[in-house]
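Researcher: Structure for this, please.
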Amino acid sequence: MVVEGIIYRYRVGIPWRDLPECFGPWQTVWKRHRRFSGDGTWDKIHSELTAAADAAVAGATAAGAGVAAGAAAAGAGVH
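Model: Predicted structure, C-alpha cell format:
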C-alpha cells in the first residue's frame, strides 16, 4: 500500500500529512518515497516500465503489420 499511497498523494496533490490512513502512517510512506528517490529505485522502475511499453508497442506494430500485409494480399477491403 505504500506505493499506492505515494501515487495517491501525487495524483490528488495533498500534503504528506493529509494522506488517508488506509495507506498506513504518512511518515512511513514519505520515508519510503524519499528512500526510493535517493537510491534510484524510481529510476529503475521507470526504465523497466518504459522498456516493457516499448516492447509491447513494437510487438503490436509488428503483429499488426503482418495482419495488414496478409489482408492486403488476400484482397481484403477491396470492394
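Researcher: Any notable elements?
Model: The mean pLDDT is 87. The first helix runs from residue 2 to 12.
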